[in-house]
């Protein structure tokens, strides 16, 4: 009887210490460190993306088919007839993202876009080299626009420069295989919670207090750790996903041992361990 009581107490302690609580899985839980302004709002802390070497950019110079900048047309930004209006618009065909072969990236942009070379420049036909590394998309686009306006009438063309949306990468263990991989979102801004929601959220095995982000900067790669359970994460620049971010999802150590995923599994694992230990004990005592 005494042995049964001991076994019960051990099993109960395993359940208490190994089970996951609501504090482990809730996102953005209130805390006193959250900074809000006088209006009770969380200020935006969106970092400005700066172009780095080997980035791929898309350029489209919009003008009329016979306008002053007509020679800028290419296979990438050829005029397309618009049946709805009867007019012609200088626009690029819809991008086709590579899928099915797990190669990553957009093949159309890779072969036809502008690559930032090893010197940090992009080479635009008819314009020449433009410094891109370390600059914002808006800054580069404005320089291209100014150089177009030097040769053609101002107001007769519009420069549209961009990346292929926000490309980011999520890497986790086998439990998170459903959301692991390269992700592309065609939005101007994207929060870490939006990125996870788009991909179905996190399961219970992921340690929300220890998510690691590798951020690509012109100077190198910045490594940061964020806690998804803390509300003051919204004050961090890493709350906002940037183009090229790599998001690493770590597994709780207790889950690696079979504990903590859910109460039933914890109880089952605990009972199995105790049964095995008791069986070995009984065998040894009979020898």
Automatic annotation (TrEMBL):
<feature type="signal peptide">
    <location>
        <begin position="1"/>
        <end position="18"/>
    </location>
</feature>
<dbReference type="Pfam" id="PF02563">
    <property type="entry name" value="Poly_export"/>
</dbReference>
<feature type="domain" description="Polysaccharide export protein N-terminal">
    <location>
        <begin position="49"/>
        <end position="153"/>
    </location>
</feature>
<dbReference type="InterPro" id="IPR003715">
    <property type="entry name" value="Poly_export_N"/>
</dbReference>
<protein>
    <submittedName>
        <fullName>Polysaccharide biosynthesis/export family protein</fullName>
    </submittedName>
</protein>
<keyword id="KW-0732">Signal</keyword>
<dbReference type="InterPro" id="IPR049712">
    <property type="entry name" value="Poly_export"/>
</dbReference>
